[in-house]
Amino acid sequence: MENMNNIFDINRILDDARELGCSDVHFTAGLPPVVRLHSAIRKLTGYPDCTEPIIVNIINQITSIKHKNQISKGLDTDFSYTSATGYRHRVNVYRQRGYHAVAIRLLRDDIPTLADLNLPATLGEFAMHPRGLVLVTGPTGSGKSTTLAAMVDHINRQRSCHIITVEDPIEYVHTHKQAMVNQREIGQDVDSFAGSLRAALREDPDVILVGEMRDFETIDAAVTAAETGHLVLSTLHTISAKDTIDRIMGVYPPHAKGQIRSQLAGSIVGIISQTLVPTADGKGRCAALEVMAATDAIRAQIREDKTYQIGSTIATGKKSGMFTLDQDLARLVRMGKINDAVARERCQDIGEYRRYLEMGDY
C-alpha cells in the first residue's frame, strides 16, 4: 500500500493535470484519476484504478483536522488547497455508493483581465458602477468565478475603495492595488453568506462580492445591500437574464413580490449569463454570453412583471451593450472561434441563431 500511496501523490497528479491544460481532476472508486480537458472527460494514463483506501489517502494529503471531522460525519465538504508548487485548487469531498469521492477544480495562479478573457467592455462598465447589483450566471463550470475575479480586479486596478469578498472557498487571491481587498471564507472567517453580508454592511465596504446567492436570506441581503449604496457582485445558477429575474422573484412570498420587483428594478445594473464552449481548434474553450444592461425599458419590465419581454429587449439593445446568447454564438461562429455544430447545441432558439448567422452583424 505504501508504494500505491507514492504513486497517488496528489501534488504530482495536480501538476500533471495542470500541464495538460485540464480544468478538473476527479478521484472515484473503480477508475484511475479522471480529468476534464476542454469539456471532455478522460482518464489519466499510467495510474491504476482508485480504491477506497487510495481515495482516503488522497483526502488525508489535502485536508485539515476540521475538514477531516466534517468528512468523517459523511458531510459534503468544500475547501481550498494550495499544492506544493503554490497553485490553488477548489476541492469538494463527497460520498457515492458508500465510498468517498473527490472533485478538484484547478485554479489559475494569476487573475486574468477582462481583455485576457475576451469579455466585452460592458462588463468593465458594470464593474465601475458606484452602487447596484451585478450578477454573473450560468451552469456549474461555466467560468462564473473567473469572470467575477476579473471584474473585481478591474475595480481593484482603477478605483480607490474597500472591496469585501465572501467566498466558499476563496478561489482567486487579490492583492491590494488601488483598492483595499478583504477576502472572507465560509467556514473559516464567517459562518454563512447571509450572515457575512449583514456583517459587511458594518465594515465600511464600497464593493461586496458574494460567491453565490444560494437562498432567500442571501438574496434578500444582497438586494438590500445594493439598494443602500453598495456595488454587489454575485452569481446564480441560471441560464438567462429572464430566468435570473424570475429565480430571484420566486424566493419571495406572494405578499412581498411587488416590493421586491420595485427594489430589483431600482438596483439591478446588469446580468451576464455565460457558458463555456469548445473552440474550433480543439485547444480550449471560450465564453459565449448573454449580456443585459439595466436600461429604462428593462427596469420597467422588471417592475411591471413583464420579464417575458426581456429577451426581445436584449436582442435589440446593441447600443446599450446588450446581446443574446444566440447572437453571441453566431458572432463566434462567423469569427471562426467555434464550430456551427457546437453553437447549435448551445443555442436557445435554433431559428433565431440561424437568422443572426445569416444576417451578419446584428
Observed structural traits:
362 residues, alpha/beta, Rossmann fold, six-stranded antiparallel β-sheet, 39% helix
Could you explain how this protein is built, in words?
- By secondary structure, the protein is of the alpha/beta class.
- It folds into 2 domains: 2-106, Beta-Lactamase (2-Layer Sandwich), CATH 3.30.450; 121-323, Rossmann fold (3-Layer(aba) Sandwich), CATH 3.40.50.
- 39% of the residues lie in helices and 23% in strands.
- The protein has 15 helices and 13 strands.
- The chain has a 7-stranded mixed β-sheet with strand order 9-8-10-11-7-12-13, with helices on both faces. The chain has a 6-stranded antiparallel β-sheet with strand order 3-2-1-6-5-4.
- A hairpin with a 6-residue loop joins strand 1 and strand 2 (34-37).
- Helix 13 (325-334) crosses helix 15.
- The longest helix has 15 residues, at 144-158.
- It is globular.
- It starts with a helix and ends with a helix.
- The model has no long low-confidence stretch (mean pLDDT 94).
Mean pLDDT: 94
Q: Strand percentage, roughly? A: 15-25%
Distance from first to last alpha carbon: 62 Å
CATH topology of the largest domain: Rossmann fold
Give the total of beta strands: 13
Radius of gyration: 21 Å
- Structural class call reads alpha/beta
Level-2 CATH architecture of the largest domain:
3-Layer(aba) Sandwich
Indicate the CATH class of the largest domain: Alpha Beta
* CATH homologous group name of the largest domain: P-loop containing nucleotide triphosphate hydrolases
Count of individual helical segments? 15
Q: Roughly what percent helix?
A: 25-40%
Low-confidence stretches: none
Q: What overall form do the CA principal axes indicate?
A: globular
Main β-sheet, spatial strand arrangement: 9-8-10-11-7-12-13
* Order of helix and strand elements from N to C terminus: HHEEEHHEEEHEHEEHEHEHHEEHHHHH
Largest sheet: 7 strands, mixed
Question: How many domain regions?
Answer: 2
